[in-house]
Structures are given as structure tokens and as C-alpha cells.
Please model this.
Amino acid sequence: MEILLTTIHIMVCVALIVIVLLQTGKGASIGASFGGGGSQTLFGGSGAATFLSKATTIIAIIFMLTSLSLAYMSGHTSKKSVLSELASPPSATTSSAQQDMPTDGQKEATEALPVEEGAK
Model:
């Protein structure tokens, strides 16, 4: 669904760019300065302005809807993390550092050993 919506969104973006670039500006267009007649156009004298403005409005609405839909879908998908799949270490077991420490009985045994004078 997301791939289809993304494809539609890209096509609407390109169509919106083309339609906006086809529209004439508020001032005199460059075609009018070279003698281009208004009645000789593809859409008629004022037909292009109304057709392109309606098409721009429709394409812009579709663009906004696809943008909002893609934003909603990206914010509400459950993406799995690598860290969430790792098992947490059990807290009840003793760590290796605690296992290496001698117990009270072992401490007494090591303190009772005589230290040689030459070992110092």
C-alpha cells in the first residue's frame, strides 16, 4: 500500500510541476511579444487559464492528500529494532565478577598461609 501511494505521490508531483510551468504569468507572456495570437492557442483564448487553474487545484489537493497519508503511515508503523530482538540478561544470576571474588572461608584460608621472606 505504501509503495503504491508513494508512486502516485511522485507522479502527482511531476504533474504539478508541469502544470505550474505551463501556466502564463500575470504580466504579458513572452509568446505575446512575438505576435502569438490568443485565439490560436491549444485551449482557446481564455480556455487555457481556466483549464490549467482547475487542473492545478485538483492536482494540488491530490498532492496534499498523498502527503498527509504518507506522513500518517510513516508515523504509525511498528518498526522493529535490532535491540528489541535481543534477549535481556537475566538479573537473578550472579555475574562473573561476583563469582571470581573469594568467599569468607576462602579469605581465611589465604590469610593463614605463611608468606616467605624471599618472596617480598
